[in-house]
Amino acid sequence: MATINATIGISSDITGYGTTINNSMTMTKAGTIAGLDQATGLVRKTLTSTNEVDLLVVGAGVVADVTATKAAKLYIKNVNTDSSEFFTVGLGKSSGTATKQAFAVTADANRCVELGRLYSGDFLIIPWVAASDEHDVFVKPSVATTMVVEYQVFYE
Amino acid sequence: MATTTASLTITSNDLVGDALSLASSTQLNKAGTTIGLDQTTGMARVYLTATTQLDIFPVLPATPAGQNLQSWVYICNKSLDETEFITVSIGATTIGLLYAGDFMWMPWSQIAAKADIEIAPSTGAAAAGIHVDYTCMHQGITYPTSGD
User: Fold this and answer.
1) Which CATH class is domain B29-138?
2) Cα(A66)–Cα(A131) distance, rounded to whole angstroms?
3) Where are chain A's structural domains?
4) Are residues B5 and A91, on separate chains, in Cβ contact within 8 Å?
5) Cβ–Cβ under 8 Å, residues A155 and A65
6) Which of A103, A145, B17, B99 is in the most buried spot, having the most CB atoms within 10 Å?
7) How far apart are CA B96 and CA B87, in angstroms?
């Protein structure tokens, strides 16, 4: 059993009262206090087109063991420095018959939704449920010049 | 102009053969600029006692004010019971499950109607009652028009 700790800090003067968030979590297996014990390693990928690219495909590759009943944490970072360029990050099958941004449809293996956009230096950390094709993780560069994304999954 | 800084460290001494240490820090800016975000919902804490799925921010209309702008969402499950979780979704798509003490941090495009951020406590969490913290730092959100 491994111990993986994640600590987030957010400080802001958006309001006159100031905002500070400091929180830590230990990544655990679903419903237990046992730590996650597997990881993809930090992947660095260079993209040179605006095509959508699957970073993680449910049931395939190094994350084939991740299922809907297992815990996983996903970290993604845009390591570029141009503040106008971004990666769109989404969930769902990004190829074939995918219906992009089909938020209105009911559960559908072909659904493909946008979560948000990572501009230069931005990162995310989210839980990942690998239940079906609609949970594949994809990114879409905003420009066709070289953009670099880094990502890592911690899982059980 | 406001300045908001977000940082994240991930560490482990025993996951792999060598110690793992990953650190990131970024300024939260308006989309495509170096101008800081200037709006927030404030940090909310709710106590939930049902498994009902809830929108935690105002329901997105057909053309959300924050569409294609930048927003950041933080959610934390404050339970201390490792079996209690909340399911976090965007529209009809589940993002993942936050177990006791887990947090998440992600950008949110508010890209379309029904792209709402939703949470639903597990059966056990609802039965025991569960606290959840959440906030959104953003460039725009459509608040519902008063109905009275």
Assistant:
1) mainly beta
2) 9
3) 38-155
4) no
5) yes
6) B99
7) 6
C-alpha A119/C-alpha A142 separation (Å) is 10
Would the CB atoms of B26 and A121 count as touching at under 8 Å? yes
pLDDT of residue A84: 96
Q: Which of A11, A119, A154 sits opposite B29 (nearest CB)?
A: A119
Which member of A4, A126, A127 has the closest CB to residue B10? A4
Judge whether B37 and B27 are in contact, CB under 8 Å: no
Residue A32's closest chain B neighbor by CA? B82
Determine the Cα angle at A86 with ends A26 and B88, to 5°: 40
For chain B, which ranges sit under pLDDT 50?
A: none
- Please state the domain extents for chain B: 29-138
pTM recorded for the entire structure:
0.95
Q: What is the pLDDT of residues B37-51, one digit of tens each?
A: 999 999 999 999 999
- Please give the Cα distance from A68 to B142 (Å, whole number): 33
- Residue B131's φ and ψ, nearest 5 degrees, are -95, 140
Check CB contact of A42 with chain B, cutoff 8 Å: yes
Q: Is the pLDDT of residue A128 over 60?
A: yes
Overall average pLDDT of the A47-76 stretch: 92
Q: How many residues does chain B have?
A: 148
| CA–CA gap between residue A43 and residue A110 (Å, rounded) | 26
* Chain B, window 91-120: residues with a beta carbon less than 8 angstroms from a chain A beta carbon: 91-99, 101-109, 111-115
DSSP string, B125-137: HHHH-EEEEEEEE
Nearest-neighbour CA in chain B from A141: distance (Å): 13
Contacts of A128 in chain B (CB under 8 A): 95-96
Measured CA to CA, the distance from residue B83 to residue A2 in angstroms comes to 19
Q: What is the mean pLDDT of residues A88-112?
A: 70
The ipTM assigned to this model is 0.96
CATH code reported for the domain at A38-155: 2.60.120
Query: Considering CB atoms only, which of B85, B88, B103 is closest to A23?
Result: B103
